[in-house]
From TrEMBL:
It comes from Thermasporomyces composti. Residues 111-299 form the ABC transmembrane type-1 domain. This is Peptide/nickel transport system permease protein. The lineage of its organism: Bacteria, Bacillati, Actinomycetota, Actinomycetes, Propionibacteriales. It is a multi-pass membrane protein. Gene3D superfamilies: MetI-like (1.10.3720.10). Residues 1-33 are annotated as: Disordered. Keywords: Cell membrane, Membrane, Peptide transport, Protein transport, Transmembrane, Transmembrane helix, Transport.
Length: 313
């Protein structure tokens, strides 16, 4: 009888391998529920703009990593015979600046600077936020009051002004810029982490971990933190374009990394020769805007993907 049913299924074009295997009672097993990350990834892929932005952002990262190999010239190489060369000049596809430096090469190195500072600063901010938020949310009491009081003081201080002060004190090196932007931008994430910990530490699985003898650090890192990653990842994705904008803003003020190219510094130089050589400002500004939009749209997609209401869409 089973052979006949199988033959009929094959004849009808049914893939018997896709059928659920029956359990010992003869009933088909129910499919296993998909995890939170799998469902979030499905929702993210369904957002075409966010998914395309993720691909574009990934390409930017790859280009930044291999910038020295891709760039036709070194960022400091000058050609005084081709100063302010227009677009399409032989050997300089996007033209040159006042010193005869290739704009395309400097854009690639500027991309490397922007992403290095952005990812480094956001990693610094994330570490600080996780430490402060986890400890304050889980320990509570006087520890929470002290940590969150310090957080409130930092929140009241303008972050951009604080970054300017730190860069002025620490210097204009790459590491100093990363540290300054990271220290100036961890407060919002710390508040989010604390709020997530306060919510999650009351869940049943946390109580079960305590009953089994798990210590505070183990509970916070192993049971609470993994379930708070979604919202933290969303804020981190929005922090990356904010850090890129902060780096460009510091460069506009003359506090950027030297002598490595920066989009902010390139835009500043281009504004001085906007009428004579508009390509000096147009291309850095365009790439800067596209990069910010790409990472922002990725953040929007992650926010929608981790939004519990997305299950009903």
């Amino acid at each position: 009888m089973g052979t006949t049913a199988t033959s009929e299924s094959l004849a009808a074009g049914v893939d018997t391998g896709a059928l659920a295997e029956p359990d010992q009672a003869g009933q088909p097993e129910l499919p296993r529920p998909r995890g939170q990350w799998a469902r979030a990834w499905d929702r993210f892929r369904a957002n075409r703009l966010a998914f395309a932005s993720l691909i574009f952002a990934g390409l930017l990262v790859v280009v930044a990593v291999f910038a020295p190999l891709i760039a036709p010239y070194h960022y400091s190489e000058t050609d005084y015979n081709a100063r302010l060369a227009p677009i399409g000049t032989e050997g300089h596809l996007l033209g040159t600046d006042l010193l005869g430096r290739d704009i395309a090469s400097r854009l690639l190195y500027g991309l490397r600077t922007a992403l290095t500072v952005a990812f480094g600063a956001e990693l610094t901010a994330l570490v600080l936020a996780l430490v402060v938020g986890l400890v304050a949310g889980y320990r509570g009491g006087r520890v929470e009051q002290v940590l969150m009081g310090f957080t409130d003081v930092m929140y009241a201080f303008p972050s951009y002004l604080f970054a300017v002060v730190l860069v002025t004190v620490l210097g204009r090196g790459l590491f100093s810029l990363i540290l300054a932007i990271g220290i100036a931008s961890w407060v919002t994430q710390a508040r989010l982490v604390r709020a997530q910990v306060l919510t999650l530490k009351q869940r049943e699985y946390v109580e079960a971990a305590r009953a089994m003898g798990a210590r505070g650090t183990t509970i916070a890192v192993r049971y609470i933190l993994p379930n708070a990653i979604g919202p933290i990842l969303v804020t981190t994705s929005f922090g990356i374009p904010a850090a890129i904008a902060a780096e460009a803003g510091l460069a506009l003020l003359g506090l950027g990394v030297q002598p490595i190219p920066s989009w902010g510094a390139m835009i500043t130089d281009g504004m001085r020769y906007l009428l004579a050589a508009p390509h000096m400002m147009v291309f850095p500004a365009l790439l800067f805007a596209l990069t910010l939009l790409a990472f922002t749209w990725v953040g929007d997609g992650l926010r929608d993907a981790f939004d519990p209401s997305g299950e009903q869409r």
